[in-house]
Write a structure and sequence with these properties.
CATH superfamily: Gcn5-related N-acetyltransferase (GNAT)
Strand order of the largest sheet: 1-2-3-4-5-6-8-7
Largest sheet: 8 strands, mixed
Distance between the termini: 8 Å
Number of domains: 1
Shape: globular
Number of helices: 4
Low-confidence stretches: 1-10
Oligomer: single chain
CATH architecture: 3-Layer(aba) Sandwich
Structural class: alpha+beta
Number of strands: 8
Helix content: 25-40%
């Protein structure tokens, strides 16, 4: 997968790198624009403090366009939070973040996440990376009581290169 893409007639270079504490102001701004019940600063700090987790940002010319926060558990990596700035969605940023996570954590690892059942775009993205729905968590989202689709990517699942 290439780190570059063309948009609006100009070449842009997107890069994926580890999320750092100094990135948190930009990350929190995206979080607040993306979710009705955003994570707090302390939630991000807690996840970044865990040495076994993987947290990444996608950036362009120093501006963060998206991020992913993933915790490591005994049996699997759990994608805790992923978001792309609303102004930069549908440009491959989320795909780059998932690919970066899988490349760093390993093709042969197992992964899990929850997605709003109404978020067809996110579910389709996860399915391209080998995630499959295995059940629901009723009333998982506190803001509106929406169910979550529980998704798993099993050990060694192949995925498409978008």
């Amino acid at each position: 997968m290439s780190d570059g893409e063309r948009t609006g007639g100009r070449a842009t270079i997107l890069s994926v790198r580890p999320l750092t504490f100094t990135d948190l102001p930009q990350v929190i701004a995206i979080e607040r624009r993306s979710f009705p019940s955003p994570w707090s600063l302390s939630m991000f700090v807690l996840e970044l403090s865990k040495p076994s987790g993987i947290s990444l940002v996608a950036s362009e010319a120093g501006r963060i366009l998206g991020y992913i926060v993933c915790a490591r558990y005994d049996e699997a990596f759990h994608v805790m939070d992923i978001a792309v700035d609303p102004d930069h969605r549908r440009r491959g940023v989320g795909s780059m973040l998932l690919a970066g996570l899988i490349q760093r954590a390993g093709e042969d690892a197992s992964y899990t996440l929850e997605a709003r059942i109404s978020n067809a775009g996110a579910i389709a993205l996860y399915e391209r990376y080998g995630f499959r729905g295995v059940g629901t968590r009723p009333r998982y989202y506190a803001d509106n009581g929406e169910d979550a689709l529980i998704m798993w990517r099993a050990l060694g699942t192949p995925w498409e290169t978008p």
